[in-house]
Amino acid sequence: MKPKKLIPLTVVVAILLALVVYKNNSKSEQTLSEQAGLVAMLPEGLSKSDLGKLELYSGASAEEKLVLAYDADADVWRVATHFDAPVKKDTIDKYLDALIKLSGEPRVADASEADLADFELTDDQAFHVVGYKKDTEDAAFHVLVGKGEYKSVFIRNEDDNDIYTEETDLRQQAGVYSSDEGAKPKPDTWLNKDVIKMEDTDAITKVALTYPDKSVVFEKREKPKAEEEKAADEGDAEGEDGETTVDVPDAEPEYEWVLASGGPGGDYKQSALDSLLRKFGNLTASDVVDPAKKAEWGLEPAGFRCTISVEGKDDVVIEGGRPSVDEDGYVRIAGAKDDLVYKLSKYTFEQIFPKGSSLFTLPGLTLAKDATESIELTQETGNVTLAKSGETWSVTSPAADLETQSTKLDTIVTTVTAWKPVDYADAQSGLGAATRTAAVLSGGEIHRLKVYGEAKSSAGVYARLDGTDTLLVMSKTDLDKIFVAPKDLYQRTLLDLDENDVAAIEGASPEGAFALVRGDEGWNLTLDGVAADADTLACDLLAEDIVDLQVAGIQFGQAALTGEPERVLHFTMKDGAQWTFSVGPEQDGQYALAVSGKAQTFVIGQSDVTNLFPAFDSLKKVEVPAEEPAEPATETTEATEPAAEAVSAAPVEGTETAQ
Q1: Which CATH code is given to the segment(s) 369-489?
Q2: Domain residue spans of the chain
Q3: 220-236 pLDDT, tens per residue?
Q4: Fewer CB within a 10 Å sphere, N or C end of the chain?
Q5: More reliable by pLDDT, 568 or 11
């Protein structure tokens, strides 16, 4: 065939192929819904832009519905049931797209109530999605979501009982992952928690931080020129031969951040400032809270303020509040159109309002433990003096006949000698006198750490080191580690004895007297001089309570009771050692205790007295009443039993008696 005749044939074949492709594409463009017989669940023609409100609720909690509403003025969706907080755009867009495309494959037509219950599609079981067009009060659609199965979920429209399956689970997309009663949609899934989101943090020129007790300002400034550059700028424009030189363009200016005002003195930490600036790129809250409670959130007035300046733009001012200095914080954007209050975690809040120790290197103590000789603590709970002898630390004052708690002593020494403040403050009025003082003798020098009242910005107390004017902050943790009450420096178990070695116990109290003697077969008990059977377990517990007694307090310097004892307990060990506990009268729920051989008295509580001087009845063996004899058989019973035997022995009529 000639080439000219092949051309028309080729064209025809190409057209036919194009028609085949078009036909196949038309079939594929016939949506999967149409091919599978899927049914659109929303009204025909309804578009995403038509919707103005959604109501989401679990059937069993219809009164706790979550409402999302479109705000046309701001062109945002809001959680109407959660302070009109804005909704995340991506989240609502994805949900609306899923709604508009919602279509189901028929599963059960005109299902019965029993069928609806099986598929969890009754009104009380299902998850409800109700949609409204903008500026209308009547619902445009009402879809119920029921039980899920592999990669699909059962759905139906509220106005009929036809059940369908659909891949999109509107319940899970709303943040509800269970159909259990009480599983209801929560605002957290929808909330836009972006407090501030700056696209270009490099454009920031100034950051001013104000705290309840200090302020600090950082500014970005042009770097000063080197001396050679200055000389070149100021030199003649003429060369040595009198000819005019060609001007060289000035180099691009370089900028640096400087501490413009505030601070404890010394340089700031550039890394900390860089971290603060980066945080402005995406500051995200953990929740949005009720703006009507600003005073409760510490925002009326705001104790914290962060002002961010960008050249050519209005300042952004973050106001912060912290009801408790060691908990979460709250912020708002001053002058914002939306009256929103955001909750920040403690960690995030302190990224925006960093502690002084994060921004600056603060003065502290760096003393060698080996060179430290003594520590004196002046405090309201009682002054303490610690001294080192060789490698061992001991309490030289106040002294007690008890073992010291070596771990606590070591903690005091370690914390004091390496103490670092967590924050600082500008000069504060009304500090008053120091409430506690730690004087440390180390390397032949005395260092004094004075402590004042509670700090306003950090969890701790104000402190001054070695008489300087710099006001520092000691953390609550360090405060508790260093300034320990004298009674807590000693082991408060009085005796190192074994209850099994107690041979005899005698007690006397206003209720009477008792005596116990351990024998080979157990305890022998006498109550007010009268012998009684002892309860072995109760007597063993008394011996255990005696040897394990821990005092509540130590009365340093008081060797004896101030009056006559009200109760006396005397006990003897198997090796012959004897001890006496003398207990004074009750005072404010406590009792003074003198112990033989101890140079000071102690304090015990009501429960201790009850254990040492138990009620008499508790020491006695409980008498188990003897079982009552069985009732004698009644006359009727006695009469019937022989009759029964006679009946059973009588031959049955019509039969022969066995021979």
Answers
A1: 3.30.1490
A2: 36-191, 195-225+254-359, 369-489, 499-619
A3: 999 987 765 656 555 54
A4: C
A5: 568
